[in-house]
Amino acid sequence: MTQVVHTRDELAAALDKAPLDQAASGIAVVMTMGALHDGHRELIRVARQSSAFVVVTIFVNPLQFGPNEDFEKYPRTLAEDLEACRAEGAALVFAPSRDDVYPGGPPSITMNPGPLGAILDGASRPGHFAGMLTVVEKLLRLTRAEVAYFGEKDFQQLALISRMVVDLELGVRIVGVPTVREKDGLALSSRNRFLSPEERRSALALSRALREGAAHGDPEAVLAAAHKILSEEPGVRLDYLELTGPDLGAVPDDGPARLLVAAKVGTTRLIDNVPIALRKAV
Ligand code: AMP
């Protein structure tokens, strides 16, 4: 049985009553903005493997959207989302209103994402990561989470949250889950539903570029291969294509790295990334 609550008082009451043996195995949380797809469902499935009590939060956080971004038109599909949570065996769904999350109105004190939050998406979306970290920290506390699951799809977000729980000693374990893709490679995203059939075809260039890049071991060859694919697709307006270390730091000569891309297709902004194994030339 999946219980659904909408206010922080209802959430606290439900957590107080969480079966003790289940709570003993740890409360796990999966945070989402709704419009759930199989990527979200995979997070719930992975969480269920180690926790009997999985809380899913559904909240489109206004604080992490810029003034010209898609907060108003972001898809909201609560009835279907609750069905998905039930089907995956979530114990509890917390779907609060804006006023319940921010009872005092927009907060004047927010998280500072630091230097890691200033690069990549942080450079393109000022204020996004401060807003994201502020709500994540709140929801970790409100749900009393011991472990929280986040997708590698939003790799910089995962890196920042992992850093936040260490730096602020929040005592929560953060687990990353690999990106779920369509058969043709497109990373699942709630925003994919905005794409026309033609835009969807163009959007495939992102995952194709990452895949072609990942076939190389030399940093210059990785970037050249990926850039070539993207430049051949006129429907894609590139924001960034960057190769970094595995934690978004400097690119190593050899070993694990990450290739990340962000682009606009029509009016829809998409992001994707893959792990890369760099090999030093001999
Ligand atoms: P969102 O609802 O887009 O804020 O995403 C909620 C959570 O689902 C985040 O941890 C995302 O990284 C994760 N997520 C979104 N899309 C995918 C995907 N295709 N594969 C795996 N995780 C995902």
TrEMBL record:
Its EC number is 6.3.2.1. InterPro entries: Pantoate_ligase (IPR003721), Pantoate_ligase_C (IPR042176), Rossmann-like_a/b/a_fold (IPR014729). It catalyses: (R)-pantoate + beta-alanine + ATP = (R)-pantothenate + AMP + diphosphate + H(+). This is Pantothenate synthetase. Belongs to the pantothenate synthetase family. GO terms for biological process: pantothenate biosynthetic process. It comes from Actinoplanes awajinensis subsp. mycoplanecinus. The reaction proceeds by a bi uni uni bi ping pong mechanism.
